[in-house]
Write a structure and sequence with these properties.
Layout (H helix, E strand, L loop, with lengths): L3 H18 L5 H13 L3 E9 L2 E8 L7 E2 L1 H10 L5 E3 L19 E8 L5 E7 L7 H40 L3 E6 L5 E3 L1 H6 L6 E3 L1 H13 L4 H13 L5 E8 L5 E11 L4 E8 L1
Antiparallel strand pairs: 1-2, 1-6, 2-3, 4-5, 5-6, 7-8, 7-12, 8-9, 10-11, 11-12
Length: 281
């Protein structure tokens, strides 16, 4: 017999594996579906308070409930009354007191799980057609699930935010007319914008291995007609305490003659350490 404690551990284990192997955008939907299966609920969904006037159903199972819009005010009132603790309805309250009657018609028991207490609150709702007893070991399982769901929701929000920021800044950097090359000191990661990919004859912009970038820049430098000057400046660059240089002239002769002004700037933060190369044509 599978105990509720084991089901809680199963939930943690499966969501931890998903965290490493799958795309974050479907993480929360998978987690809610998993809770539904583990608890043998007939309905499971997320209700997110998008603003003062809108609470929207998301990640619902069954899916036809998705995008139902509700008034958040009475829902918030019951959450505040219960101190944002999990609400267990072994029997459904009368319709006049059931703020979820639009979602829980013809259900006998339900659980409302607050998983986020920030201004944009989210709750998870589980419903059963048959009456449930909600014994103490089941409630302990639900509390474990609630804490893990709170982590999942926060992690999903943070990673989706960072993905949006990354897309936004990538779009900005790709539109800059200069060729930008960043090489991380970790030896494993580098990045180029579209102008740099074109200048270095790379397959495309975005992530590139530092070895690939170093080789491409070496090939570009070998096309210069002032190679000795470039090597002299390179010695100064890599031996100087600042590890920086600007207005470094590379005179290229192939495929057409052109002059490129090169700058190299060290980039050091708590998360990143490397060099940014800027090629101005």
């Amino acid at each position: 017999m599978i105990t509720w404690e084991r089901k809680a551990l199963n939930f943690i284990n499966q969501t931890s594996r998903w965290d490493k192997d799958k795309h974050i955008s479907s993480f929360l939907a998978f987690s809610i579906s998993l809770v539904k299966n583990l608890t043998e609920a007939d309905i499971a969904l997320q209700l997110e308070f998008e603003d003062e006037n809108t609470a929207k159903v998301k990640n619902a199972s069954p899916v036809y409930l998705d995008d139902i819009v509700m008034n958040p005010e009475p829902i918030k009132n019951i959450l505040y009354t219960q101190g944002f603790q999990t609400i267990c309805w072994r029997e459904m309250p009368p319709p006049s007191e059931n703020v979820f009657k639009e979602l829980l018609q013809a259900f006998s028991s339900a659980i409302i799980i607050p998983v986020d207490t920030t201004p944009n609150n989210s709750i998870i709702i589980l419903g059963w057609s048959k009456p449930q007893t909600f014994e103490s070991d089941f409630l302990e399982c639900i509390e474990t699930v609630r804490l893990r769901l709170k982590e999942i929701l926060l992690q999903s929000q943070q990673l989706l935010y960072f993905q949006r920021v990354a897309v936004r800044f990538a779009a900005i950097l790709h539109s800059i007319p200069h060729a930008l090359v960043f090489i991380n000191n970790d030896g494993f990661s580098g990045w180029v914008n579209q102008e740099a990919a074109t200048l270095l004859n790379l397959s495309g912009p975005g992530e590139q291995l530092p070895a690939v970038l170093s080789d491409a820049m070496t090939q570009l430098r070998n096309k210069a007609i002032n190679t000795e000057e470039i090597y002299t400046e390179a010695m100064h660059l890599f031996s100087s305490p600042e590890n920086a240089i600007s207005n470094w002239i590379w005179k290229l002769e192939t495929p057409i003659s052109k002059t490129v002004k090169v700058s190299c700037i060290p980039v050091t933060t708590q998360q990143v350490s490397g060099r940014l190369w800027i090629f101005e044509q």
